[in-house]
Design a protein that fits this description.
globular; about 25% strand; about 325 residues; disordered N terminus; about 40% helix; alpha+beta
């Protein structure tokens, strides 16, 4: 695998002439509608109410999300050309806790030493498996016509590493401007074509059943739409880069897959447009539920893994008390992700 030549990467903010500062953009336009928020509503209107309108997150989920963020940051460095030591330093920085830290509950196995072993094992896996190279472009080659704001990851030679760059841009849906935000994990070149690779860390075992949930992903297709719009390159599809971070991940006798690749899932350009249209209508649906003052409760298999299942199982009269004791309110801003 050929990596970028530059080992030092810096983040550079960009804002359009219409909204020349972050404050101006945030005051004028909604910038937090992305794959995460749309997915929260699409999963279940009640889930959307709790996660989007209330900003709730189960207290025990914070440690799991932080582990995923730390691994994402290390992967980001790795595919930007950094050496292993620098990647691990970034993992420690994002994790933010010392070697002695331990938590309780179902994520009690997640600690700094555990995450370091997972990432070291991943680097061994990637050196043997990777046959692609990260997509790198020049700033002057990007079409910023519809980009309202961005945080670009720029190498020392001035090239833009699109992986983990944050982009806020306009699309036209039904003749209306629609602002959609995205942070694609890793656009890549492979076999003469361009794809999106998306990193997924999971507490569950890696399998075809696990990966199949992403076959029709608005998230992945939306990321492809963003990258295609600013580069004018055809994004042919997406791959999932799976990392198992369950409690058995670092055991020498573990017989499952610690890492796995799924795909490529091939996308047609019309499917990328459809994904943006889907996200547009989910945003309209949020307005509808807000106007009616009620977010109906879905019931089905998704409830099993829903972070708000505990709330929904309670009588409505005592849910507020549980919210205060079992959940944190998080102020989420896309540009701070």
């Amino acid at each position: 695998m050929t990596k970028p030549m530059a080992s030092m990467v810096k983040e550079i903010e960009y804002f359009s002439s219409r909204y020349p500062t972050r404050e101006a953009l945030e005051a004028a336009r909604e910038i937090n509608w992305d794959a995460t928020t749309a997915g929260q509503l699409a999963r279940c209107p009640r889930n959307g109410q709790y996660a989007i309108r209330y900003g709730l997150r189960p207290k025990e989920e914070a440690i799991y999300l932080n582990a995923g963020n730390a691994l994402h940051a290390a992967l980001n460095y790795y595919y930007s050309g950094a050496d292993g030591d620098l990647c691990l330093e970034e993992l420690r920085r994002i994790w933010g806790k010392g070697y002695d830290y331990r938590s309780n509950g179902k994520y009690g196995h997640l600690h700094l030493g555990f995450l370091e072993v997972v990432f070291k094992n991943y680097m061994d896996y990637a050196r043997k498996r990777d046959t692609f190279k990260p997509l790198i472009v020049k700033m002057e080659d990007l079409d910023l016509t519809r980009v309202l704001g961005a945080v670009w990851r720029v190498a020392e030679d001035g090239s833009v590493i699109l992986g983990e760059s944050k982009v806020i841009m306009e699309f036209t849906v039904n003749g209306e401007d629609f602002v959609y935000s995205g942070k694609p994990d890793l656009p890549i070149e492979m076999g003469g074509a361009v794809y999106l690779m998306d990193h997924k860390s999971t507490n569950g075992y890696l399998s075809g059943w696990y990966f199949d949930q992403y076959r029709f992903s608005n998230q992945l297709r939306g990321y492809c739409a963003i990258v295609s719009s600013i580069t004018h390159l055809r994004l042919n599809g997406a791959l999932i880069n799976g990392l198992y971070i369950g409690e058995r991940a670092i055991l020498t006798e573990f017989k499952g897959d610690r890492f796995g690749r799924y795909g490529p899932m091939l996308f047609d350009p019309s499917q990328l447009s459809e994904a943006i249209k889907n996200q547009y209508y989910w945003r309209k649906a949020l307005d509808y539920f807000e106007q009616t003052g009620y977010y109906p409760q879905h019931t089905g298999r998704d409830c099993v893994s829903c972070p708000f299942a505990t709330l929904c199982a309670l009588p409505p009269s005592i849910r507020d008390l549980t919210i205060r004791t079992d959940y944190d309110a998080v102020d989420r801003s896309f540009l701070d992700l």
